[in-house]
Amino acid sequence: MIVLSVDTAHAACSVCVFDMVANRSLALLSEPMQRGHAERLTDMAREAVATAGISLSDVDRLAACSGPGTFTGVRIGLAFVRGLALVLKVPAIGVTTFAALAQSCRADAAGRDIWIVQDARRGEVYLQGFDGDGVPLHPASVLAIAAAGEMLSDKSGLAAGSGVKLVDLPDNLDVANVSAVPDAAMVARLAGQTEDASNAGAVPFYLRAADAKAQSPLVRHRESDLSIETADARYASVLAAIHEPCFEDSWDAPAMAALLATPGAVALLAMQDKAGDKQPCGFVLLRAAADEMEVLTLAVLPHTRRRGVARALMQAVRRHAASAGAKKIFIEYARDNQAAHALYESVGYTRDGVRSNYYKNTDGTVSDAITASLKLTDADHFDCQQTHERL
Question: Which domain holds residue 167?
């Protein structure tokens, strides 16, 4: 089993390709940084895969450090593996900071208990204890520094983490000689050892709420009684509710939120005006990379079909891509989806090729995927520029 793991939850951006059978890292990259994880992560993952001498299709499992850590950093790593998992159709697993650091300590623990203490700021620490086998002794908690000292006053074993110097440790508790930043190889190892990967989703491990506030979406354009708006992760449950009746293997709200948190991802949400009441009726999910735009999925609620919603969304995709400076839009759909074929052909997409047996259906069968694309013209970019100038 090959595991690709990442950690962006701390003051470093780390990626590891780990071979569970050989029990060793095939590639391990880590760069100290306080900011810029999102911009660096994708390239580091590519570098790690190339160094390991494999392709992404060889990856059997994905993993990310799920925190505690910086609020944004946790989301970046988890969003990356969740999005990649949907593409590769492999499990994505979250490994806590506590578990990863405890795993790093086990070689020196000699069967003793391990106490992970992370700086939570505001005069507090995050704390969790493990036995010598890496099994948690109690749930993780956030404690005032003095309270953490009292809790550890009668404990023995090893202590590790960014908060060990903040707490008054007893004489029987030695400080482990390990980094306070989790080792991506340990994240990979623990993810590879997870027996039921289907129930070990990559979700954030937060011990207290974030301070960040989401921004409001912007209205892009209107067509008849439809308004097409950009939608961020706050709309994940709305998008999931639209997606569910449209696809057998629909994406749930956490998956939508994870995808929307990846760099370059955006959703365009179609809202139908019913006597002044806006009602969501369809959406398209996009992801930009360099000068290209990819359509990840398009869904329209069954009872609102044949009213031009899908066509309006695809026209919005074209304008959005032009405004983002894209030169080409890519799309992929099942060969037997005749409605999709007719729609995309009618708005200018041309067939590029076929991916045999690409889709795995819930009944065990497989379907071919058609790949198609649309080249944006100078006229597309000119029209977009003119629209911005009028606004």
Answer: 118-175
Of the two residues 189 and 251, the one the predictor is more confident about is 189
pLDDT of residue 218: 32
The pair of three-digit structure tokens given for residue 235, joined into one six-digit string: 């709309």
Amino acid at 383: D
Distance CA 344, CA 373 (A): 9
First to last CA, the chain: 54
* pLDDT tens readout for residues 43-85: 899 999 999 999 988 999 999 999 898 877 887 888 788 878 8
Q: How many domains does the chain have?
A: 3
Q: Is 52 exposed, middle or buried (0-12, 13-18, 19+ CB in 10 A)?
A: buried
* 256 contacts 208 by C-beta, under 8 angstroms: no
The partner residues of 274 in beta bridges, in order of sequence, read: 277
Q: Are residues 90 and 127 in the same domain?
A: no
0.70 surpassed by pTM = no
Check whether residue 165 and residue 228 sit in a common domain.
no
Q: Which tokens go with 77?
A: 């790593």
